[in-house]
Amino acid sequence: MLKPLGDRVIIEVAKEEEKSVGGIVLASSAKEKPQTGTVIAVGEGRVLESGQKIPAAVKEGDQVMFEKYAGTEVKYEGNEYLIVSGKDIIAIVE
Amino acid sequence: MLKPLGDRVIIEVAKEEEKSVGGIVLASSAKEKPQTGTVIAVGEGRVLESGQKIPAAVKEGDQVMFEKYAGTEVKYEGNEYLIVSGKDIIAIVE
Amino acid sequence: MLKPLGDRVIIEVAKEEEKSVGGIVLASSAKEKPQTGTVIAVGEGRVLESGQKIPAAVKEGDQVMFEKYAGTEVKYEGNEYLIVSGKDIIAIVE
Amino acid sequence: MLKPLGDRVIIEVAKEEEKSVGGIVLASSAKEKPQTGTVIAVGEGRVLESGQKIPAAVKEGDQVMFEKYAGTEVKYEGNEYLIVSGKDIIAIVE
Amino acid sequence: MLKPLGDRVIIEVAKEEEKSVGGIVLASSAKEKPQTGTVIAVGEGRVLESGQKIPAAVKEGDQVMFEKYAGTEVKYEGNEYLIVSGKDIIAIVE
Amino acid sequence: MLKPLGDRVIIEVAKEEEKSVGGIVLASSAKEKPQTGTVIAVGEGRVLESGQKIPAAVKEGDQVMFEKYAGTEVKYEGNEYLIVSGKDIIAIVE
Amino acid sequence: MLKPLGDRVIIEVAKEEEKSVGGIVLASSAKEKPQTGTVIAVGEGRVLESGQKIPAAVKEGDQVMFEKYAGTEVKYEGNEYLIVSGKDIIAIVE
């Protein structure tokens, strides 16, 4: 199991379908938008300078939108995940 | 439903009418001004280093002006929205 | 009505008279100085990291000097205003 | 009257005499040093993140040295002043 | 013994196997991913501006993932270690 | 008298002897090291964000080493001094 | 005696032996690693924004590793020392 540290969140990124016209793969315009994915694990939260711990605003299983280009790709047991900072998660898709 | 996180606010951007003269589309001079829109959803607010949570200064339905080029465009259920940080909202239009 | 947010202040900028000599418009040397204007509306003030709210140092009707190039131009009901951060207001002209 | 805001201080800058040799004006070497002037008015002081207000370290009438190139030049009722941040005042000349 | 200071952590970096095809060494694609290793020693933690000490989120023996290019390589008694800041450790591999 | 403000310290810089060989002045290699001098006056100290005032770590008459290139040169009553921030003083020479 | 100020630490840098092969001096590969040395004196520690003083994490006589290129070289009574900030000391060698 991967246990993210601090305010980090592990996300399984949703795959975007590529549209093809006559066999030519077209980059979806949606690719310039933020990506979406499913939260797999959350860290214990971030610590303020006052010492207070702020838990993550998302939880396991949440569908989320996050800033494109945020985070670090990791490979674990054959699967690929993205580990992003909680501040790079824009919204929960409910 | 899209639920913005932190001090983020989801805005439906007001469309600007383009003036055309004899079929030629003229870029409105107003386009260099801040944009306006309607607040669709607000996050729970930002957290100060002291741990205090500051709620958003705007609420659903507010007409707002926001800094041009601020925020991230998102597409959700066929509609386009802008998710901006509360600090990029300049004024409420009452 | 436009209601500025945070420590923002709406200013109606004073027009500078341009001197002309024999029909040639001369850029006033004063133009390189800070601009002056009248405060039209003030936001609720800025919030310190301690949570304390600091009200604006200016009020409606004040004549103020502000840093040139500060702020964002907005157009509202046919009039042009400047919305500046309170920290860019240099002095009150009494 | 000009009332400076925050930790700003209004200074009437002391004029430096230029030495001339045979009619040629020589830039004084002292010009590369900090400038001096007289404090005309002081703001209410700066506000710490803790909310505490720190009054200016100088008062009206003080002769002060300040960092060259600091501040903003203003013209008021025909006179020229410099408005500088309190942190750019180096020393009081007693 | 090496005793790391502050929020630093000493890591013995896991060696990555290189795949070779017909004798040609291929850089593993995994090399662009974060590195993994074993925690050898942890410092006393970081000190917040409030004076509170936050202990490290990892302990001796933990298998961790950390940001590639983070930290400082050290050689000690013939062995090579990496000393990284706690904030550069992404996740614990359990 | 010159009274430095905040955490500033006025220093009379020690002159370095230049070695000359056969009339040719050699730049001393020591010139690339920090400079030394005597503390002439100290300000009231710096103010923390908590409002607490931290007095200077040096006092009048102290021999000090300070970062080369730090501070502002001032001329006062025919003498030249350096006014440096307390944080640029490296050590007291006892 | 040299008394370092704030969180500074005076270090006597350990000399690295250079390997020579047939008279040609080879730069040791270890030179790209952090340097080691002996702590000669420590300052009173750093002051947090809360006013709390944090003493140095090292003491006189400690063998330490520190970031290469950190600190300021000083010469005192014929000896050369390095004065580094406490935050640039990576580890104590016990």
Automatic annotation (TrEMBL), chains A, B, C, D, E, F, G:
Pfam families: Cpn10. Signal peptide: none annotated. GO terms for molecular function: ATP binding; metal ion binding; protein folding chaperone; protein-folding chaperone binding; unfolded protein binding. GO terms for cellular component: cytoplasm. SMART domains: Cpn10. Keywords: Chaperone, Cytoplasm. PROSITE patterns: CHAPERONINS_CPN10. It is found in: Cytoplasm. The keyword Manganese does not apply. NCBIfam families: PRK00364.2-2 (NF001531), PRK00364.2-4 (NF001533), PRK00364.2-5 (NF001534). Belongs to the GroES chaperonin family. Together with the chaperonin GroEL, plays an essential role in assisting protein folding. The GroEL-GroES system forms a nano-cage that allows encapsulation of the non-native substrate proteins and provides a physical environment optimized to promote and accelerate protein folding. GroES binds to the apical surface of the GroEL ring, thereby capping the opening of the GroEL channel. Heptamer of 7 subunits arranged in a ring. Interacts with the chaperonin GroEL. This is Co-chaperonin GroES.
